[in-house]
Structure formats: C-alpha cells, structure tokens
Amino acid sequence: MISLELARYRSASQRARVFSESWIEANFDCPKCFGSLERTPNNTSAKDFVCSPCGYGFELKSKQGLFGNQVVDGAYQTMLASIRSDARPHLLLLSYTTDYQVRDVTAVPRQFLIEEIVIPRKPLGQHCRRAGWQGCNLNIGMLPLDGRIKFVSNFRNAPREIVSAAWKQAEFLDNYKAAKRSWIAVTMALVRQLNKRSFTLGELYELEGEARKAFPNNAHVKEKLRQQLQHLRDRGWLHFESKGNYRLSDATLRVTD
Ligand SMILES: [Zn+2]
Fold this sequence. Notes:
By secondary structure, the protein is an alpha+beta fold. The chain has two domains: 1-158, Dam replacing family, catalytic PD-(D/E)XK domain (PvuII Endonuclease, Chain A); 176-257, Arc Repressor Mutant, subunit A (Orthogonal Bundle), CATH 1.10.10. It has helices at residues 2-7, 12-27, 76-84, 160-170, 178-194, 201-205, 208-214, 221-234, 250-254, and strands at residues 37-39, 49-51, 57-64, 70-75, 90-96, 102-108, 118-120, 135-139, 149-153, 156-157, 198-200, 238-242, 245-248. A seven-stranded mixed beta sheet has the order 1-2-3-5-6-9-10. Strand 12 (238-242) and strand 13 form a beta hairpin. The longest helix is centred in the C-terminal third of the chain and has 17 residues, at 178-194. It starts with a helix and ends with a helix. The model has no long low-confidence stretch (mean pLDDT 92). Residues 30, 32-33, 35, 51, 53-54, 56 line the site of zinc ion.
C-alpha cells in the first residue's frame, strides 16, 4: 500500500519523507504514555510529531542506509540556541533500505542533545545561494547507550516494556539545565565505556583525556567527574559501594544495545 502511495511522488526526498512519516504514525507509540503520535502542520516548528496525551514533541530524520556516529542537522547557531533554551523535541532516527523496509529506529531523548555533540560544518562558500550559512552535525556516537534508545534494531522491534523502561531510566536527566546535562551525559558515556558492573574512581579517571576532549576549557576535569557520580548516585543510576567504588544499578544494567 505504501509503495502505491509513494509512486505519486517524483523526488526521492519527498518519497522518503512521506514513507518515514507514515511509518512513524502507524507504528510508533509514545515511549512515555503509549499515546500515538500526530503529525504537526508543516513548517510550524522543529517538531514533526506531537503526542497529544503527554505533549511530547518529536523530530524525525530518516536516511536510506544506516546512520553513522554523525547525523546531519540544520543551522549550527539555531541548534545551539535551542539546546541552551531547553526547547528541543526528542529526536527520532529512522533508517530504511532501498526497497523501503525499516531497518533501525533510534530515539535520542531531548535531554541528551547537549552542546558537546554539536559539530559545526564549514560555512557555505561564496558561490552558493546561501553563502555564509553554517550547518552542523550531531555526534551521537559520543552519547551513552541511555541516550540512544533502539525501537527497531536490524528489522526487529524491541519489546515495548524494554523500550519504556529504558526511556524512564533516562528521564532524570531532563530535570537538569543544559550545562549540567552535558557533564552528566558525558560521564555516563565514560562509565558505559568501562563496560563493567562495578568500577573504581581510578578507572574512571583513566578516561580523563576523553572528558578533556569534550570540555577542553575546563581545568578541573577529575573534580567534575567525581561530582557527576554524586548526581548519578542521587538519581539511582549507580550506587556508592565504599570509598572510590561504584556499582551500576540494576535498572541501568538492564539498558542494553
Ligand atoms: Zn505521550
């Protein structure tokens, strides 16, 4: 049925948009309240869909083939401004095959959209119609698992209760302002990188160089990392076992790829 409808559209980008929007409308339920999503009128905002029971907004990006670590986004300054004002919708990434089979659908909850993943592209050259315009990429590969929730993985739907639990487990981060979210999200990513159930402060400090790459202007990286562990403990993402020893909570361990 979809292919008949799609045949009416000449351009590949129109077909892709119609296909991916219809797919989300028919198959994707809000991970918070299980409401179905409705399309917003075109060009009214950055939101493509809204869940009317809970008011969540979603932006959809689709791509033929898999998304890599970097996702092409729109204007650089607009993205930074919307992150700083905490006004982002959640992001949905839908990847499909040449014959329009949905291969992967990943959600990036809005609280994981942090400045550190926004990579500026080169401004457009003088010969371009929009000379000087600067776009950006989102380096989603930098995010912890918690911020890349898989709804469809290699053509298979993830069980609803698993998706919903992962979503819930990540919600606490939405209560922090942009600058704090950045540090917490990067710390979560580093802890996930250790790939251990329990870890020591020393092990986390070995990844100090990675944190420096994300925050090149901060002179107190170790201190900041230790502070984030306290936030993560207060929110139940991990537990303090004894001085310098930490353990991920069971709910945190259940969030897997
Ligand atoms: Zn909802």
